[in-house]
Amino acid sequence: MSVIAEAAAPRFPSPFDFPDSPLSEAARQPLMLGAFLNLQDINISSHPTSNSWTFDYNAEIVRLSDELGFELAFSRTQWLPKGGYDGEASLDAFVALGAMAAITRRILLISTMHVLYGPLHPLHIAKYGATLDHIAKGRWGINIVTGHRSVEHEMFGWQRIEHDQRYAMTAELFDVLQHLWSDDENYSYDGKLSPWKLHNAFITPKPAFGRPILVNATGSPAGIDFAAHYSDLVFITSPGGAHIDSALDTLPAHIGRIRAAAAAAGRPIKTLINPIIISRDTEAEANAYAQAIVAGKPVATSQGFSPQAYDSDAHAWRGRLDPSHKQGLGLGGNIEIIGTPEQVVDKLVALHKTGIDGVQLSFYDFAPDLEYFGARVLPLLKQAGLRV
Asked: Which of 172, 264, 326, 387 sits in a 20 to 30 Å window from 301, CA-based?
């Protein structure tokens, strides 16, 4: 039995236990759609783009996604030293996505949080989370990050914690949070693996649907074990790298392991993946767009978003380092889908057949490419039965 399974508290309610929760409603779509925002400078290429790290730009992206019927929005958060980002600007996803609750109606807003370091005590997370849950009426959640880069831990004065130990500590943290979100009496706790202590702790109001939505991104056995016991959505990467053919070959077995772990824990779970969509009316135009992006790629990029950046022990991106797999063009996203609207839909249908329940979409030029997706691709997804 895993450390997480041994430590896990009795099962607490999740939003999936409430048929009228926003998460339950979102999961009724055959293929959930999400927008994977860039709240920081990501300069993949010098090819022109309207993209901006600013709140206003990304708020408009989320408003449009909401209008198009998308179910999800979230963004990465990174803690890097000067020079680590492509540019100098990077908003915090916890604050930015939480703020978007007041300007949206249906879309689920998932705030990425590094939960093991920094000043946040479990009481802070529980209270902030319950507050945002009420502002968003059950549409807010946490993308749980344990931190794979040593430099991120060191910025907070920590040494990096060993990979599997991070997940065991995070399980302990979320056991505490579940109590704070659920218990009707004061709660006390003295951390076993972690430094957190609580005495007669209590928060009110409680979240509307048991607790906020929980997500984690992972590819490791320890991360999958954590997801099986705690997460509602698991954000996975292609074990075969960015090329869509390699992804389609390697995803079924990977998703099968995740579903088996969740079934053993007696919990429902949905899988998400992050394709970048490069689409135009003709195949030649789509390929020309992709090649124009490639032509503008710098010879040497910053360290910030590279899988090889700094000292990382992440498992999920190892497929991009495996020479036995077909690789993509380096356009961003975990998988690259390039083609006409019809070809894009064919690939999304194929991804769905591997077991993918939702796609967190990236676009090279986010605002116009998202509008194009809404006008040209979304109707075809409905015709294909992936949207209702």
From this structure: 326
C-beta atoms surrounding 155 within 10 Å: 16
* Side-chain half-sphere exposure of 253, counting CA atoms within 13 A: 6
Phi, psi at 171, each rounded to 5°: -60, -45
Question: Of 271, 273, 183, 258, which Cα lies nearest the Cα of 225?
Answer: 258
> What region, left, alpha or beta, does residue 382 occupy, with left being phi > 0 and alpha being psi -120 to 50 degrees?
alpha
Compute the distance between CA of residue 322 and CA of residue 306 in angstroms, rounded to an integer. Answer: 15
Q: How far apart are CA 139 and CA 129, in angstroms?
A: 11
| 3-383, CATH topology level | TIM Barrel (3.20.20)
Burial class from Cβ neighbours inside 10 Å (0-12, 13-18, 19+) for residue 184 reads exposed
74, 272 contact by CB (below 8 A):
no
- The residue written with tokens 């990977």 in the block is 254
**Tokens (6 digits) for 76:** 């990465």
Which sign, positive or negative, has the C-alpha torsion 73, 79, 82, 86? negative
Cα–Cα dist 37/366, whole Å: 9
Q: Quick one: DSSP state of residue 323? A: T
Residues 218/316, Cβ–Cβ less than 8 Å: yes
Mean pLDDT by 10 residues, the chain (388 residues): 49 92 98 96 92 96 98 90 78 94 96 84 96 97 87 82 91 96 96 91 97 94 95 95 94 96 95 98 98 87 49 60 77 94 98 98 98 98 98
Contact assessment for residue 30 and residue 385, using Cβ atoms and an 8 Å cutoff:
yes
CB contact set of 99 (below 8 Å; sequence gap of 6+): 55
> How do 213-217 and 233-235 pair as beta strands?
parallel
Burial class of residue 10 in the structure, from the number of CB atoms within 10 Å of its CB (0-12 exposed, 13-18 middle, 19+ buried): exposed
Identify the three-state secondary structure at position 336: strand
Per-residue DSSP letters for 205-222?
A: SPPTTSS-EEEEE--SHH
Strands of 139-262 (E only): list them: 140-145, 187-190, 197-201, 213-217, 233-235
b/e sequence 233-262, b meaning 16+ C-beta within 10 Å: bbbbbbbbbbbbebbbbbbeebbeebbebb
